[in-house]
Every structure is written in C-alpha cells, then in structure tokens.
Amino acid sequence: MAASEGLSALNVDETQSRSWLDHMHDWVTTVDHKKLGILYIGSGLLFFVLGGLEASLMRAQLAVPANDLIDPKEFNRLFTMHGTTMVFLVGMPIVTGFGNYLIPLLIGARDMAFPRLNAWGFWMFFFGGLVLYLSYFASMGLYGAGTAPDVGWFAYSPLTGRAFSRGNATDYWILGILLSGFGSMSGAINMVTTSITMRCPGMTMRRLPLFVWMMLVVSFLMLLALPVLTAAQVMLLFDRFLGAHFFDTQAGGDAVLWQHFFWFFGHPEVYILIIPGFAYASEIIPVFSRKVIFGYVTMVAASISIGLVALGVWAHHMFTVGMGRGLNIWFALITMVVGIPTGIKIFNWIATMYGGKIRFKVPMLFSIAFIGQFLIAGLTGIMLSGAPFDWQLSDSYFVVAHFHYVLIGGLLFTVFGACYFWFPKMFGWMMSEVIGRWHFVLFFIGFHLTFTTMHIQGLLGMPRRIYTYEPDRGWAIWNAITSAGVALQGLGILCFFLAIFMAFKQKKPAGPDPWDAWTLEWTTSSPPPEYNFLTLPVVRSRRPLWDEKHPEDPDWKHE
Amino acid sequence: MSEAVIQPMEGSRWNRGRVGMACLIFGESMFFSIFVVAYLFYVGKSDHGPQPAQVLEFPYLATACLLSSSITAGYAVRSLGRFEYLRSILSLALTILLGASFIAFTGIEWYGLIYEHGLTLGTNLFGTTFYSLVGFHAAHVIIGLLMLSLIWVLLLLKHVKAEHAERFELVTWYWHFVDAVWIVVFTVVYIIGV
Ligand code: HEM
Ligand SMILES: [Cu+2]
C-alpha cells in the first residue's frame, strides 16, 4: 500500500512540473510498449490521411470519363504511393501498434521482451515511411524536379530496371520499404518472444486470449515473409546499382522470378493484415454479446492453419502469367482450401453472437459489419481462385473490389472498432457514441457505394490502373457512384477524428473497465501506469476479470 | 490477485534471449533461402562468361576452418560456464582465428575469380547469383566475427564472467547458424551447381 502511494505521489509531481518540451522528449526517447503502441497507431493514422488523399485524387480523376484533372504520369505515381502507403505505412504500423500496446497487458506483463529493440523498430518504420515520401522532393536528384515512384505497389520487373525506371524514384520505394521492414521484423521478434516468455503465472497457452494467439500467427508470418521481400529488394538494388542480372531479361534473367518472390511475400502479407482484424473482432464480439467466444480451440486451430495454408497460395496472383496447367490447378485448389478455416471463423463469430444479449455499441457495429463484408470478400476471393475466371477478371476492377473489401471492409472496419474499444483504456476518456455512430453509418454507406459498385465495373471489363476511359464504355455511371462514395467515407473519417478530439475535450472518464469486459487489460487503471500492474496478476481461466467479478461462479470451475 | 512473481519464464529453457535469437535466426534463414532459390533457379542459365564447373574449386580448407570453429565456439561457452577463463579465452581466440581464415580463403578465391577468370557480379547470371549468395554469407561471418571479437576483448578485460555464459551462448547460436548456412551454400554452389 505504502509503495503504491509513493508511486502515485511521484507521478503527480512529475506531471505538474513538466513542460511541453519534456513531454516531447519523453515520447521520442520512450521504450514503453504503451507509448510505442500509440506512436505506431498515431503515425499509421497520419499516413492513412496521406494515402486517403491520394485515393481521393484518383477517384476525382475517374469520376467522369475523359477527364484531364490528373495527367497519366501523375496517376501512376498516385496509385503506387497509395498502395504502398496503405499496406506498409498504414496497415503494418497499426497492426504492430495494437499488438505492442495490448500483448503485455493481455498476458499480464510489464513490458515487451525487448523494449529498446521495440523503440528501434518504431523509428525504423517511421523513417522508412519518411524516406518513401522524400521521393516527392528528392528522387530525380540532379535531374531536376522530384517525383514519386510509379511502378505499382508490387513493382513488377522489368519495369523497375534501370532502363525503364530512370532517376531514383524506384530506389526510394525500395529503401523506404526495406527500412520499414526492419522495423516490422523487430516488432515480430518482440511479439513472439513476449507472448511466449513473459506470460504471468497461470497464463498457459490454452488460456491465452485469442488476440495474442492470432498475433503470434501474424508475427510468424512476418518473420517468414518480410525477409523474402527484403532479399528480393536487395537483388533489385544490385540490379539497379551494381549491374547484376537477377531480373534483367536481356542477360537471361527472369522477370517472373520477381513475381514469385514478391507474391511469396505478398500473400502472407495480406494475411498479416487481416488476421489482426480477426484478433480485434474476437475480443470485441464476445464482450458485446455477453458470451464467451464460441469454439476457442477451433479458433486457434483455424488461425494456425490459415497461417500455414497462406504459405502455399502465392501464385494465385499470377494465373495470367501462364504458369502451365499443373501449377494453375495446384494454386487454384490450395487457394480454395483457405476458405475452410476462414469459414470456421465466421461461423464461430456468428455462433458467439447467437443467443447473446448483444449491445450495439460502436465497436460492435464495426465488428458486425466486418463479418458480412469479410464474408463477401472471401467469396470473391474464391471466385478469383478459379484460374479461368481469373483470366477474365485479373487486373480488372473486380480484383480491386475484392481486396478493398478485405482490407477496408475487413481490416479497417475492425481497426475502427478496436480504436473505439481500446481508446478509453489508452487515454482514460470515453469516445462519443453519437459521433461514433455517425462515423459508422457514413463510412458504411460510403464504403459500399465505392466498393460494391467496383465489382460491376470489373465485370464490365474496366481494367485497373487506367487513368481515364472513353464515355461510350458504359462505365461512367458506376464510376460516378464509386467516386461519390469516397466523399461519404471522407466524412466518416472526419467524424472519427472529431470523436477523438471531443474525447480529449469533454474528458468523460472511462474508469478501468468501461465495457464490463473480462481480460486482464481492464483490471488496471485507464490509462495504465507505466508498470501496467502493481502486482503481477495470477490467472486461473480465460476470463480472469470475470472470475474476479463473479467469485460465486468463476470460469475456472468449468474450463 | 496475488503476490508479485518475477518474470515467470525467466531462467527456464526458453527464456527471452533464446526465443528472440531463434526468431532472428528463423528470419535470417528465410532471407538466405531466397538467395539459394535464385542460385538454383539460374544454375546453367548463363549463356556466356565463365561457368561454375570451369572456375570453382571445392573450398576444402575454408570449409574445414568454418565447421571446426563451431566446435571451438561451443567449447568456449562451456568453459566460461565452468569458470575456466583461460580455456574460454583460448578457444574463443581459436574460433576467431578460424573464422578469419575462412574470410581470408574467400578473399583469395574471389581474387582469383575476379582477376584470373574475369568473373564479377555483372558478368553473367552465375556471377550475379554467386557473389550475392556467397557474399551475404561472408558478410554474416564478418558480423559474427565482430561480435565474437568484442566478447573476446571483454573476456580479456574480465568484463565478461561466468554468469554471462548464457548470453555468450546466444552469440554462438548465431555463429552456429552462419555455419549451417555455409553447409547449405557449399552444397548448392560447389556440389549441385558445378
Ligand atoms: C478466402 C480468402 C481469399 C482468397 C481465396 C483470395 C483470392 C485472391 C486471388 C485469387 C487474387 C488474385 C486476383 C488477381 O490478381 O487476378 C487475390 C488478390 C488479392 N487479394 Fe485476395 N483472397 C483471399 C483473401 C484475401 C485477404 C484476407 C486479403 C487481405 C487482407 C486479400 C488481399 C488481396 C489483395 C491485396 C489482392 C490483390 C493484389 C494486387 O493485385 O495488387 N485477399 N485474392
Ligand atoms: Cu493472395
């Protein structure tokens, strides 16, 4: 007791005598997993605004046929920067950020396993992102004005060779992503080590929150996939600077090899981005359904098998390359197999809600929308896994619709849900339900206007990455709707930032456990003290906080 | 809840350091795998310039040096754990010497390839894949050597003591890994590839 009073007295003293500069110094030098988590998520949101602006510009250009708002070269840069930003500088840091913030709290630890490595990883990521954006100012170097990379987010060879990508724009793409990849690698090492070695007494693997299990799978995929991209990028650098021939077709090199390397990274990467969405939903849905998660063990098994199967499907991105019958059949079949564990998960979430006393709070709204949207995304994915179907629709807007359904309808929706759910824990203030609902409704409608219609453009034959189209193609009306949806999504995002702003302004206290939840992060104050838990918790079931609240009927009697 | 317990898993077989190092090694092996795949993919596809069978000779001495250095490294760790400082210092010195001779042999090999056979990174696909795979391996050996030398100096200065044997062991994990990569590399480059 005396110790805790001493500690809090110390904290009060500190906060009173601190200047703005001290706070900045704190954030820059911090090795605290909570601060780093917030830094990751915050800078992810910053890049999200940039990526969103790029998308809006592209949609403005495509809103009407034969438009000349943006010239073709600029358009190429926009979709390259948009895709690269959203995958590497928005998805990755937000995923790592929530992992960083929550894993120690969920397993009853005081910090990550390697706090300094953690800080190093964040700054590598952040400066990697800045290097990418520096290309706008610096990449033409001595040639004059700067430009951004324009080779697409998957940077296919031979377009990236010296002959076709002059200047240094492509090098900025390589180096920026390479650096941020080091950051994610160290994040993954940290997450695995923390979840395996730092669990509090009683937190066995069978009691591990699903969030942690799924982040373990994600970290495994990161460790496996990111070095592959790094290696391929190093080869590309050798080609571009040292005259090597890895992807140089004129010296016998093979451009398709890049595609194999890239997608061997790229497909696990898309699962690195969606499994965290599963993780957030798996924590949010039980709490707002007032039931335990349905099928904990199958959830874990499904996550692991998704992680494993995801390693064998990469070439479904390459059906149109002409791989031959045998490979086409293999990759089509194995891709369809991913649908099974994915379906199990959807079933489990629905079964969790079934018969529950559902509370339709904002985090839950986003999670419910996620289930439906992710289901559709999975179904279009299965459609595309049929090679002949894919030959028709590859590189069309249908594919664009598919992956935006996963990445926005799946990941981003759950990220918003997670923000509303854990914001009170992170800052101690509640976010407004009313503004949150506006955010949800606007974003939901906008999302469907934009991306549901995109399927139709795709089926009508509109290729992706074109900067404009003729009026007589029959695409105009759909493109107009698509672009209109962007405006609604933008308004939704504004509501999100407004909700954050108002939360800090209104300062409605959240208390340690605003949602009446069950996992360890809600046992400590909001925001948690630097040391997380004054005494390390001891766990006897999957819902330690339930046990504490209901000593008459604790979970451990039933598990 | 109950009384504080220090990090529960600390001191068990899979403590922080070991898991962290294992993860790093896993990631690194993925990195090398891609260079190995590229090497195998391009074997025999160079249409001009020197071919592997014409210019490569099996590096018996270098291989013997590197493989035996793993044994001396392990011995150094074990001696340190048993407070046998002198043995530890000597066998670590031997490890560093063996590793450095490996690098020297590689240097001699590369000198011959470049000046006698005119093979560089840009000559043909063989040069491209050979220098990048073997070069990345050699770079890892050098990193390992730097770490081991640092430990050696600290050992001499008595800053590294028996209680640090565990951490020293982690560095040797890295060294063993670099060794294992070499087994793959020489199998691929000097046996399958020629
Ligand atoms: C049931 C699961 C899924 C299946 C069967 C599936 C199948 C496919 C197929 C066959 C393609 C290639 C289409 C083409 O380029 O012609 C594709 C593209 C894509 N998918 Fe999926 N997918 C699934 C889930 C996901 C998930 C979970 C994500 C991400 C979180 C995702 C993200 C992407 C992306 C980003 C692309 C396009 C990459 C590009 O060309 O730029 N997919 N998917
Ligand atoms: Cu894929």
Descriptive overview:
With 559 residues, chain A is mainly α. Chain A has a single domain, classed as Up-down Bundle (Cytochrome C Oxidase, Chain A). Chain A has 16 helices and no strands. Chain A has helices at 2-16, 20-29, 33-62, 72-107, 115-138, 169-197, 210-242, 255-289, 296-309, 325-353, 362-385, 387-393, 397-427, 433-459, 476-506, 544-549. In chain A, helix 3 (33-62) packs parallel to helix 5 (115-138), helix 8 packs antiparallel against helix 11 (362-385) and helix 8 crosses helix 13. The radius of gyration of chain A is 24 Å and the shape is globular. The relative contact order of chain A is 0.10. By secondary structure, chain B is mostly helical. Chain B has a domain at 59-192: Cytochrome c oxidase, subunit III, four-helix bundle (Four Helix Bundle (Hemerythrin (Met), subunit A)), CATH 1.20.120.80. Helix content of chain B is 74%, strand content 0%. Chain B is built from six helices and no strands. Chain B has helices spanning 16-42, 52-55, 60-81, 85-115, 125-156, 165-192. In chain B, helix 4 packs antiparallel against helix 5. The radius of gyration of chain B is 20 Å and the shape is elongated. The termini of chain B are far apart. Classes of the chains: A mainly alpha (559), B mainly alpha (194). The site of copper (II) ion has 5 residues of chain A, from helix 8.
Write a concise keyword list for the protein shown above.
heterodimer; A: 559 residues; mainly alpha; Cytochrome C Oxidase, Chain A; globular; B: 194 residues; Four Helix Bundle (Hemerythrin (Met), subunit A); 6 helices; binds protoporphyrin IX containing FE; binds copper (II) ion
Number of helices of chain B: 6
Question: What amount of the residues of chain A lies in strands?
Answer: under 5%
| Annotated CATH homologous superfamily of chain A | Cytochrome c oxidase-like, subunit I domain
**CATH topology heading of the domain at 59-192 in chain B:** Four Helix Bundle (Hemerythrin (Met), subunit A)
Named at the architecture level, the CATH assignment of the domain at 59-192 in chain B is Up-down Bundle
Q: Any idea of the CATH class of the domain at 59-192 in chain B?
A: Mainly Alpha
- Judged by helices, strands and strand pairing, the structural class of chain A is mainly alpha
Topology order of chain A in helix (H) and strand (E) letters: HHHHHHHHHHHHHHHH
